[in-house]
Design a protein that fits this description.
Radius of gyration: 24 Å
Number of helices: 3
Number of strands: 0
Structural class: mainly alpha
Distance between the termini: 60 Å
Helix content: 55-70%
Mean pLDDT: 91
Oligomer: single chain
Strand content: under 5%
Order of helices and strands: HHH
Shape: elongated
Low-confidence stretches: none
Length: about 70
C-alpha cells in the first residue's frame, strides 16, 4: 500500500524569486501585447471614413477613448 505525504514543502528563496521574475515578465509581455492591440485598432479605425464609422456606431472623436 502506498502512502502519500500531502503536506506542502516550503519553497526555497530562489524558487520564490524565480516565480516572481516569471510573473513580472509575463505581466510585461501582456502589457506590451495590449498596448500593441490598442495601437493597431486605433490605426485601423482612423483609416475609416466618417460614413464607415457611422455605420458601426462610432464618431471620429470616440476613437481615442475606445482603443
Amino acid at each position: 500500500m502506498s502512502v502519500y505525504n500531502m503536506t506542502p514543502r516550503p519553497q526555497s528563496g530562489f524558487a520564490v524569486l524565480l516565480g516572481q521574475f516569471g510573473r513580472g515578465l509575463s505581466n510585461a509581455h501582456l502589457g506590451v501585447r495590449d498596448w500593441n492591440n490598442r495601437r493597431i485598432t486605433r490605426k485601423l479605425l482612423t483609416r475609416l471614413t466618417d460614413r464607415e464609422l457611422a455605420d458601426i456606431g462610432l464618431l471620429r472623436s470616440e476613437i481615442e477613448t475606445l482603443a
